Amino acid sequence: ISTLYEIKIQSVLVEGGASVFSQFIEKNYVDRMALFYAPKIFGKGIPAFGKITPKYVNNPLKVDIERWETFDDNFFIQGTVCSQD
What we know:
Elements: H1 2-6, H2 18-26, E1 32-37, H3 55-58, E2 63-71, E3 74-81
Antiparallel strand pairs: 1-3, 2-3
């Protein structure tokens, strides 16, 4: 991330699973989020944010929702992550 900052990259799209998402959130690298949901389970249905540490139980990450769209039984949410202060 520091290398991207040095070469003036200001935005990165991150796609991944629970481990990747959790690491970015834990390090406060996330300022915007987009979530696509479709009611389909592949395999065991691993939680998207299952590896976030317990500190978020008492102080959960808050997102200011700016956009919400539905497509049949699917939906899309986009928003800005609020400060934890």
